[in-house]
Amino acid sequence: MSAYAIAALLVLFVSIALVWRLASRRQSLPCPSWLSWLVEVDNPFTKTNRAATIIAHLGVEPGMRVLDAGCGPGRLSLPLARAVGAQGEVVALDVQAGMLRKVGDKAAEQGLDNIRFIESALEDAPLDAAQFDRALLVTVLGEIPDQAAALTKLCAVLKPGGVLSITEIVFDPHFQTRRHVTRLAETAGLRERDFFGNRIAYTLHFEKPLANRGD
User: What pLDDT shows up at residue 215?
Assistant: First the structure.
């Protein structure tokens, strides 16, 4: 990619992010399905947000059950489905039916039948307690109106010892700081385990303590 193309992409991303950030101060604005191309490819300016990097850090294994909360067009859901294999399951959760249709179409094209689709806000999702080995929120937390309820829900649906992965990058108009994310997660009953990246582009891992067997 030429320097001019990179510069043009940077200007585009920054412009969209600024406009979106200003609009998001008045109401929650998840990325609409017709703009899915914005989140369908890995961000070219940071390695932290690359799907392969996020999944590698998370240690996903065959047979696991994984929740992709705010899955969008499936940038994480599809490779996660391949990683957990036929004996595992990925739950693709999103508030927009259009996004879920995009994931479903691509899953069918790739012969993946181990993805379950749920159209719902995270805090209201019909999910049983202690069923997931891993859960992900990739540049999604800032779009959720009741973040405390969402983190409490994620803690409840994780198995004891399960891990929640939260990724944030400053290019996202809903960017959340590490301090804010950590405070929310710890209040919900999770404890920080790993940190990857830096202040403006990072992935945090939180673990559900083994003592919470009654959740």
Answer: 45
Predicted pLDDT at 152: 97
Report pLDDT for 214.
Answer: 46
CA atoms within 13 A on the CB side of 200: 5
- The total number of residues written for the chain in this structure: 215
Strands 158-169 and 201-207: antiparallel
Please classify residue 4 by burial: count the beta carbons closer than 10 Å to its beta carbon, then call 0-12 exposed, 13-18 middle and 19+ buried: exposed
Q: What is the pTM of this model?
A: 0.81
Tokens 């294994």 identify what position?
Answer: 61
- Give me the residues of the chain with pLDDT under 50, please: 20, 22, 24-26, 34-37, 212-215
Residue 178 carries which DSSP code?
A: H
57, 205 contact by CB (below 8 A): yes
The per-residue DSSP string of 103-123 comes to HHHHHHHTT---EEEEES-GG
pLDDT of residue 25: 44
Tokens at 177, concatenated: 């700081």
Cα dihedral angle (83, 172, 105, 116), rounded to 10 degrees? 50
CB under 8 A, 24+ apart: contacts of 102-105: 102/33, 102/36, 102/73, 102/74, 103/71, 103/73, 103/74, 103/77, 103/78
Could you give the dihedral angle defined by the CA atoms of residues 35, 195, 215 and 28, in that order, rounded to the nearest 10 degrees? -30
Residues 6+ apart with CB under 8 A from 27: none
